[in-house]
Amino acid sequence: MVERELTVGSSMLERPVALLVQTAGRFVSELHLQMDNKNINLKSIMGVISIGTLAGNKVKITAEGRDESEACNTIAEFLS
């Protein structure tokens, strides 16, 4: 399992949530995002919508699977 903590950049204000879910969907690994005691599946559009505004918040990304490093780095880059 790979974990990474970061503060989400302001670019997420302009990026559609669906694009984040599509990006996560490219990977075999399970991808989760933790914020404010919520843990959501990044491949679930409803999960990502339910977490609310990401921009400016501290989050933790976790990835587990055969492409976990690439998945975690790609999502972290997307959110930065």
Number of helices: 3
Any idea what the shape is? globular
Question: Number of DSSP strands?
Answer: 4
Q: Examine the coordinates and then state which fold CATH places here, giving the name of the CATH topology.
A: Histidine-containing Protein, Chain: A
Please outline the major beta sheet: 4 strands, antiparallel
- Tell me the CATH superfamily: HPr-like
User: If you average the pLDDT, what whole number results?
Assistant: 92
Helix content: 25-40%
Note the run of SSEs as H and E.
EHEEHEH
Concise structural overview:
This protein is an alpha+beta fold and 80 residues long. It contains 3 helices and 4 strands; from the N terminus they run βαββαβα.
For the structure shown, list the relevant keywords.
Histidine-containing Protein, Chain: A, globular, 80 residues, 29% strand, single chain, alpha+beta, 3 helices, 4 strands, four-stranded antiparallel beta sheet
Can you put this structure into words, describing what you see?
This protein has 80 residues and is an alpha+beta fold. It has a single domain, classed as HPr-like (Histidine-containing Protein, Chain: A), CATH 3.30.1340.10. The chain has three helices and four strands. The protein has helices at 17-25, 45-50, 68-79; strands spanning 2-7, 30-35, 38-41, 58-64. It has a four-stranded antiparallel beta sheet, with helices on one face. A hairpin with a 2-residue loop joins strand 2 (30-35) and strand 3 (38-41). The longest helix has 12 residues, at 68-79. The model has no long low-confidence stretch (mean pLDDT 92).
